[in-house]
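call fold(seq) -> tokens
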Amino acid sequence: MGEGLGVNAHTLAPSSSDYPRALLALREQPVLRVRGHFDFERPAIAVVGKREASRESLAFTEQLTRGLVREGFSIVSGGALGIDAAAHRAAIAAGGRTAALIGSGLARVQAQHIELFREIVDGGGAIVSPFEDRTAAKNHQFFRRNELVVLLSQATVVIECGYRSGARNTAHHARKHRRPLGVVPHAPWTIGAGTGLELQLGAAPVLSVNDVLALVQSQLRSEQPASEKASQAGEKASRVRAPDSVPAAEAAQLWAALSEQDRQLVKALAPGPASLSLLAERLERPPQTLAASLLGLECRRVLQFAGDAYALLAVAAAAVAGASAERP
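ret:
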């Protein structure tokens, strides 16, 4: 599969309609070669760490990744041995989607990675390279790969790393782009001591899935425009532009991309903004089972949280209206 990984791959250029929006802000936007399938607009978490990982860190990686998949996140990592491989495999085992960003071309994959990459593609995920197919792996290319891992994720979690490592370079890119960064704390005498330095530099400690959710929520709140924040204390209706201004094709595309569970949530918000407790009452579900789904929809710009309530954005309101109009 190594020499043939470029076979059946497709190209995503910056001009492509399905090119990752997160990469469009880069000065030099890479042309991506993709083997397999991955929804780059779906909320994802980057899980990275050491190749020579400890047994405990591998076990925690599997536990955390499975939990993130249950919460609706895809998993992005670097396709390396150790923590990366554990994250990819745990995502597949949990029924989720995962993408491996690699530091070589698709036709120059090292033999030690072929089995993992086959599992990823067969599991519905993708191998992604920002290099031409026959480009051999070189150290500086992994730095570029690490940056893309960060940008294609809502948050980055470093499970275990040394003082000088690729995982710390990934953390550097998260800081550079002001993206949420969490690390699993390790004692300073262990092989994961590098996470302690990241904590000193401002990374958040990650002990559970809830810590990762808090990271993403914090970023979403900080990205709200000042006008939206001001509206939280005023009229809630000002948070949502008129649904009739949304093109029908755009609304239909959004509706088609939503799962049935997400559609139920969106329908529950159609009458107007609602708090978490009110949504739980409308859907007859415990509030804790809705929080992650709401976060995922917020990441996808389907809704927003302002003040004390969730509200549909215009495209989602139009999607609901269009779906209702199509009913016999």
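The first helix runs from residue 55 to 70.
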